[in-house]
Design goal:
Blueprint: H1 5-26, E1 31-37, E2 40-41, E3 45-48, E4 51-53, H2 55-67, E5 69-75, H3 78-86, E6 92-93, H4 101-104, E7 107-109, E8 114-122, E9 137-141, H5 145-153, E10 158-162, H6 165-173, E11 179-183, H7 184-193, E12 198-210, E13 213-215, H8 219-234, H9 237-245
Parallel strand pairs: 1-5, 1-6, 9-10, 9-11
Antiparallel strand pairs: 2-3, 3-4, 6-13, 7-13, 8-11, 8-12
């Protein structure tokens, strides 16, 4: 069968383009996970020089890499985060999220990678117990464990709900609130940066593990992330990041490197 010269050239060009396309993809088959996080809650999740970092986010980067994924972090408010995971805006939520029964109704979680410690941050060092918040104006971040804890434990407190950590710390510094119920690691960072503030009380909640949130029923992704999490615990990455970002928090045995 006789094939015209233009036809030969066209076939050759098509073959060349196919080879180029294959070559451009062969070195990078990683799926990019879109990760919802916060930019204002150091040392767990925050932005530095335009990059999302902190213990939770650096840990997730390492977990995702072990599982064969790349990551793209996008900022949001905590009160919206789990809904955005559920509606597929994000593949994953990373923000020191405590795995409460209420939250498990809407999203699934990876295995635990830390535990919740709630604290009281205040200028008033006499507030040595959460019950002493009765009658006081107290900041919380909307929809967090601190929000639920305060409402359940100190019903007499005047709860002031803020959408962001920046807004809450501003309220505390300007005395529009007298205390803030917030994660211990975050409270310690603010107290370190501002001598007028102190962590005056701490409540350990080991029955509330932290986990990365994924869409309900996305068992394939959750399984791969769990494998990656076990790997970064076993090789010491978890401990290295802990010592860098949250050294004051105790290290449970389950997160220590395996010998």
């Amino acid at each position: 069968m006789k094939i015209s010269l233009p036809r030969v050239i066209a076939l050759a060009v098509a073959g060349l383009l196919a080879l180029i396309a294959c070559g451009s993809n062969s070195g990078d088959q990683s799926q990019v996970l879109r990760v919802g996080t916060l930019g204002d809650a150091p040392p767990n999740v925050y932005q530095e020089n335009g990059v999302y970092t902190g213990f939770d986010n650096e840990l997730f980067k390492a977990v995702a890499a072990k599982a064969g994924y790349k990551t793209e972090f996008v900022g949001t408010d905590f009160s919206a985060l789990l809904g955005q995971v559920s509606n597929k805006t994000f593949d994953v939520g990373s923000s020191a999220i405590a795995q409460t029964e209420e939250r498990r109704k809407n999203v699934d979680f990876t295995e635990a990678y830390n535990f919740e410690y709630v604290s009281v941050l205040s200028k008033d060092k006499s507030i040595t117990d959460a019950k002493l918040l009765d009658g006081k104006r107290v900041a919380v971040i909307q929809a967090t464990v601190g929000d639920k804890y305060l409402a359940a434990t100190v019903p007499g407190a005047q709860v002031v709900r803020f959408p962001s950590y920046d807004a809450a710390i501003a309220g505390l510094r300007t005395d529009s609130v007298q205390a803030w119920v917030v994660d211990l690691t975050i409270a310690e960072k603010y107290a370190k940066d501002d001598p007028s503030l102190s962590v005056t009380a701490t409540i350990e909640a080991k029955d509330l593990p932290h986990g990365f949130a994924v869409r309900k029923g996305n068992d394939e992704l959750r399984g791969k992330l769990n494998e990656g999490l076990r790997a970064v615990i076993a090789d010491g990455t978890w401990l290295r990041l802990h010592d860098k970002f949250i050294p004051s928090v105790p290290v449970p045995d389950q997160f220590k490197p395996k010998s």
